[in-house]
Amino acid sequence: MASTLTGSLMKRGMEVATYARNGGEADGGEKQYELPLWGLFMLGATMMVAFIGMSMVEYTFGRIIPTLVMIESPPETISFEPVPTEDSDAPKKNPELEAETVKPKPITSSFRTTLQVLDSKGGFRARFRGVWVFFVSQIAFNFIVHTLLSLSSVFRFVGPIIASVALAQLSLAWTLIVISEPSPKTWFRRLPAKSTWKKVAIPTAVLAITQQLALQLPFFLAVGLGLTEHDPRQLANVGSRKTGMMLLSCLAVFASGLLVAFFLVIPANVTLVRVQASLLSDAEETIVPFDRSFNGKVIPEIVGGTGVIGMLDAWKTFDWSARVRLLKAYVKVLFLQIALYAVLILAIFAQLFIIMGRDIQRLAPPEGGHPALI
Known about the structure:
single chain; mainly alpha; globular; disordered N terminus; transmembrane helix; transmembrane; membrane
C-alpha cells in the first residue's frame, strides 16, 4: 500500500518537473501552471518525510513487531509468599498463607514497550534490524518473478510461489536476525546452513499460496461479478439500483480478500515464523521471552528428533492471548497507515494552497479532462 502511494507521488512529481522544464507547457502544448522552485523543494521534502514515516510503519510496525508477537512465549508465573513480620504487637494473621502470583504483561502487548526493547538493543537503528537481508530478498524475489513472467503468463500465479520457496533461506535469515540479540556478524555471515532450506520450504510454500489466493480470488470474483466491465467515469450515469448492486459486489470482493487473509494468510504466516524461530541456534538468545521447546514439542536432533517444530504444533502452541495481540497489532498498523495518508494529503493540499494561492483552482480537472498538475 505504501509503495503504491509512493509510486503515485513520484509519478506526479515527474509530471511537475516536466511542466517546469517545458516552461509551464504540457506535452500537448497546453499552458500549465509552473510551480516555483521553492515550492518544488517544499513538496519534495514533504514526500521524503512521508516516505520515511510510511517505511517505518510498514517495516517496523507492520513486520518486525508482529514477528516478535508471533514468537514471544507467555511470561513465566512468578510465585512468592509474603514473609510475616516478627512484630508481637501486630494482630495475628492466618498461618496458612496462599501463594500470590504476578503475571507480567508480555513485552509485545504494546508498541511502546516493544519499541523500548528494540531501542535498548541498538538504538533507533534497531527498529530497522534485518533491513538489508529484507532488501536483498525483495530484489531477488522481483527478479525471479519478472523473469518467469517473461517466459509465460502461467507464472502470474505460480511465479511468486516459486520465488518464495527458492528464497526461503533469506526469509529464515531475516526472521532469525529480527528475533535474536544483536550480533557483530554481517547478515550474509548469519545465513543459515543450506540443510535448513528443506525444513522451511513447505511452510514457506503454504504461506505463498495463501497470499496468492488473497490477491487473486478478489480479482477473479470482480471479473465474475462484472465489475471490470464498467468505466469509472460513467458511474454518474448508472441507475441507483445498479449502483447499489455494484456496491454490494464491491463489498463481496473486499470481504473475500479479508476472509482469506484472516483465516488463511495470518495462520500460515504465524506457522512459518514459529517454524523458522525453532531453528534458532542454541548459542543465540532472543530479545523477547521465547520457549525453544514449544511446550516440549521440539525434539533435538542429537536425541533423534528433527530439531524443528511441526507446522500443526507451531500453530497450536500459539495461544489465544497471543493471537489477540497479533490482531490488535495489525489493526493498530492499519490505523497508523490511514492516519499517515490523511496527514500527507492535508499537508500536500495545504502546501499547494500556500504555493499557488487562488491558482489552486487549476488543479480541478475540466469536464472530461485531467488536472493541470495532479
